[in-house]
Amino acid sequence: MEVVNAIGRRKAAIARVYVKEGSGKILINKRELETYFPSPLLQYVVKQPLNKIGVSEQYDININLAGGGFKGQSEAARLGIARALVKINPEDKPALRSEGFMTRDPREVERKKPGRPKARKRFQFSKR
Questions:
Q1: Domain boundaries, the chain
Q2: CATH number for the domain running over 4-99
Q3: What is the mean pLDDT of each successive set of 10 residues along the chain, which is 128 residues long?
């Protein structure tokens, strides 16, 4: 089997995912998953699509992550992995879609407006 690639995005994070047959190793920016994401919760988020269809030990995954924070990066990686798995086996798509792994979360940071401290926050009103 050749390498299958996909892109996942979340907020400002972009994950380029490369999946090939192997023993279940996940490398992120040339580091192990456990060293890149020390938090077990973020490791779980990245592995969710693999665990859902039960193929966590069948593929080696190489991920290039850029931008964003650790939460956005982990969810971008999850979307990229799910998209790559669907490219490999299209019958898995309904199972992954039902869990919400195929949906790109479109929420982005709202821009700051002029004359305000933040996007929607206003300066404190003073009557006198």
A1: 4-99
A2: 3.30.230.10
A3: 91 95 92 94 94 90 95 95 93 93 94 96 93
